[in-house]
Amino acid sequence: MLTIITVSINSASAQSRAAAGFEKLKSLVGEWQSKSPDGQGVTVSYQLLSGGTALMETLKPSNEAGMVSVYHLDGDNLRMTHYCTAGNQPRMRAEAPSGEIKQLRFVFVDATNLAKLSDDHIHGLTITFQDKDHITQEWAVREGGKDTFTTHKLERKK
Fold it and tell me: Nearest CA to 26 among 82, 95, 89, 104?
């Protein structure tokens, strides 16, 4: 019996861009540090899990409990789940651009343990790659139905 497999060019292209985005995220493995605007330190670590199919990020402000985000591929999508100290788990998706990846923008898809969309939660994340040792994270934090932004300029620990 002959089986014919048809792959959409758009789907294949999206898959390769998502894979390229995940590879860019995997380049972050290691320890990172930042100073927040109030002078408190922030540490971020990235660790590969599950045979390299998931990337775990642990973000720890010096005066708070840490939070974890896990990045992974889901077909032709680059996904992230954020495990927040607020007790909810926002899920986000990023579309990797074609060409060199200088930025990944994760947009809110849905969340578990979130009664209303106006309840406090992380609503987005943009990661900008300056070079192999410098990135910027901009977290969109929804509080009381309005978004504020928290920025971490991170440098790889050497």
Answer: 104
What fold is seen in the domain 9-156? Answer: Lipocalin (2.40.128)
Mean pLDDT of 46-59: 97
What residue ranges do the domains of the chain occupy?
9-156
Q: Tell me: the pLDDT tens digits for 56-112?
A: 999 998 777 889 999 999 998 999 999 999 999 999 999 888 889 999 999 999 999
Contacts of 9 (CB under 8 A, 6+ apart): none
Candidates 89, 125, 91, 94; CA nearest to 110 is 91
Q: Are 89 and 111 in contact (CB under 8 A)?
A: yes
Q: d(Cα 29, Cα 62) in Å, to the nearest integer?
A: 20
| Cα gap 88→74, rounded to integer Å | 21
Listed in sequence order, the DSSP H helices in the chain are 9-26
Residue listed under structure tokens 């998706």: 93
Indicate the pTM of the whole model: 0.87
